[in-house]
Amino acid sequence: MEITASMEEKITRYANKVGFTLSTIFVINGSKRSTKANAYFSGFGKQKRITLYDTLINDLTEDEVVAVLAHEVGHYKKNHVIINLILSTLLTGFTLWLLSLFIGNPVLSKALHISTPSFHIGLLVFGILYTPISEITGLIMNYLSRKFEYQADAFAKKTFGEKPMISALKKLSKNSLSNLTPHPLYVFVHYSHPTLLQRIKKLKEN
């Protein structure tokens, strides 16, 4: 499936408006695997490429598609991709550093009444004790992710429009059968994105 000339023109015009150098627009035939609609960009510098799922093109109007892309451009403009990359690298380094402290630690082996320290015992203890730490880091990463989503939504609203962004979110939420009213505590702990109602409320704020 290919995008129409009018959609390509709208995407290109928007990209030029916000200074987002765009080299190529791809379409993925995702409908064979899932009903999920999605869009993302890849690459850096002048070789940035936008990829659209055919489900996104089928389900949304041209303005709504551009609004979704404006949201993705917002992530790029706000440096969310780079920030997430840095945080993921630091988190991986922190995890490996903790693992190095556990591997072969005689104190941990004695706590389990094992006389000889070993890699396997250290790995087992690390898996048990790291669980609460991973829960804390997960909470922090989810909080930042939700904050980034709000910022990207605000960018799309400012540079393209509130109404197409809201209507696109409603259609995407409907197609993915998302829960409209999950418990706030569950959202705080598990959600990497704000709920539909939270995003719409934020978009409608002045």
Structural write-up:
The protein is mostly helical and 206 residues long. It folds into two domains: 5-77, Metalloproteases ("zincins"), catalytic domain (Zincin-like), CATH 3.30.2010.10; 80-204, no CATH class. The protein has nine helices and three strands. Strand 2 and strand 3 (49-53) form a beta hairpin. It is elongated and about 75 Å long. The relative contact order is 0.12.
Quick gist of this model?
By secondary structure, the chain is mainly alpha-helical. It has nine helices and three strands; from the N terminus they run H-E-E-E-H-H-H-H-H-H-H-H.
Mean pLDDT: 86
Adjacency order of strands in the biggest sheet: 1-3-2
Structural class label: mainly alpha
Largest sheet: 3 strands, mixed
Distance between the termini: 39 Å
Give the CA-based shape: elongated
Helix amount: 55-70%
Q: How many beta-strand runs? A: 3
H and E string: HEEEHHHHHHHH
Number of helices: 9
Radius of gyration: 22 Å
What are the segments in which pLDDT stays under 50 over at least 5 consecutive residues?
A: none
Percent strand equals 5-15%
Number of domains: 2
